[in-house]
Amino acid sequence: MTAATHPAGAASAGEALRRWRELRRLSQLELSIRAEVSTRHLSFVETGRSRPSREMVLRLADPLDLPLRERNRLLLAAGYAPAYPETALAAPRLAAVRAAVRRVLAGHEPYPAAVIDRGWHLVDANDSLTVLTERVAPDLLAGRVNVLRVSLHPDGLAPHIANLAEWRGHLLHRLARQVELTGDEELAALEEELRGYPGAGRDRSAEVPGPDGIVVPLRLRHDGGELCFLSTVATFGTPLDVTVAELSIESFYPADERTAAVLRKRAGS
């Protein structure tokens, strides 16, 4: 998705609403029914013949399933102040959030867990994450670390993943879905970069997991053997802050006893 088609690049709130509606593959009638507004009024808003109220913008944002960041952008385009704050994670206001995240990370030891933001940048992690990063080139772990780049780059984790094609397909499928839902240009650029890595391929149909499995595991070559992980993703259930809404915690669990034993030994437990 390019900047020209991104809804946030629209000249007006009405144009942005129309682009979001088209991105969600909804007709004006479908959106008007879901938002409980008249089709005529929605048409007037999209064409600029009627300026939507603040309440109308938020009402339309719900059935469009817009992220909090995009709701703020839509409000700004309509001439209103943002409805949702975006607080720095280090701010005192988010102390309870930071504490909750640290408890989750610490409680997950000796298994790896990481906190990532909307752009897949590493925000925090527990000590056990090193089992996934110890063979990654130092330059990929310097500065603002992108976990997808670390995972799929030829100098990153990729050469050590036994089921690389399967795991890469899983990650790219998640990223493509996120691009579709958010319309984010930076994520689209990241997806383009990752698909350009050697062996990544560009056929998305080949990335859909087969029907025989239960979940897609991460199989990591390690010290002459193989570690096998299952992963889960957790988010805050009722966020009203953009920063909190865009945080997620990815936790890795051992899929077999050998992996569990190796991780317990590394932790000295």
TrEMBL record:
Pfam families annotated for this entry? HTH_31, MLTR_LBD
Q: What is the protein's name according to its record?
A: Helix-turn-helix domain-containing protein
UniProt cross-references to InterPro entries, sorted A to Z: Cro/C1-type_HTH, Lambda_DNA-bd_dom_sf, MLTR_LBD
Top-level taxon? Bacteria
Task: List the SMART domains hit by this protein, alphabetically.
Answer: HTH_XRE
Task: Show where the HTH cro/C1-type domain sits.
Answer: 17-71
Give the PROSITE patterns listed for this entry.
HTH_CROC1 (PS50943)
Molecular function per GO: DNA binding
